[in-house]
4,5-DOPA dioxygenase extradiol
Amino acid sequence: MNSAKPDNRNLPRMPALFIGHGSPMNALEDNEFSRAWAGLGQSLPRPQAILAVSAHWQTQGTWITAMPQPRTIHDFYGFPQALFDFVYPAPGSPALAAKIQAEMPFIQLDQEWGLDHGSWSILCHMFPNADIPVLQLSLDSNKSPEEHYQLGKALRWLRDEGVLIVGSGNIVHNLQAAIWRDTAHDWAVAFAERVKRLIADGDHRALIKYCELSDATLAIPTDEHFLPLLYLLGLQDEGDKLSFLTDKTTLGAIGMLSVQLG
């Protein structure tokens, strides 16, 4: 990667986020999660752009959206029509996508995807005017957890370019064990607490090796919702203030913990 960076001394170093996004219905509902996301958006410095790493875009290779106007993707079924009618019309940024590719040539430019609900269901509360350019970065299915973590590290320079990087997933995500009310299995709560403790302790190694954690096969039967957390850990610099938001496990086995760096 090219180490030469432009002079951005007038830009604040952006925080970085991992958001537990949960049900797509959070986009429409007024609840503790949507209110927390709205408050978070008001508390942050205004980004020049947003780079979202969503659990819901898995690819062969690493891709970044590069279209001027990404479409709103409704990648779910069985929800009310109002959710399918919802549009988050944020612009994209082909120029920023090209700049990222110039720094990291293995990232390929995408003209097809858009914004899936892992991105727009939270951003619609954080930035309801949809006036900040949003790009999505895919999860390469061929990468190991360590490689996802290292890619997060490689993206650190964007924080000094005014780019807000947002990982979107859930630290516990097992729909087969879902209970469709505000409750949670004991093992799901215990796993979420263990992950929170490891984040607070800065134990990135244990989190990269999450498969070795007790109850990991129940809490993370597939890893796409956990991997965006590894990007956040890779983005962490020494001295970053660490904050926890929406610290709750609900719907049986959905961990809604969110984390802010900086």
About this structure: Strands lie at 16-20, 49-59, 63-65, 108-110, 134-140, 163-169, 242-245, 249-250, 254-255, 258-261. The longest strand covers residues 49-59. Confidence is low (pLDDT under 50) at residues 1-7. The first helix runs from residue 32 to 43.
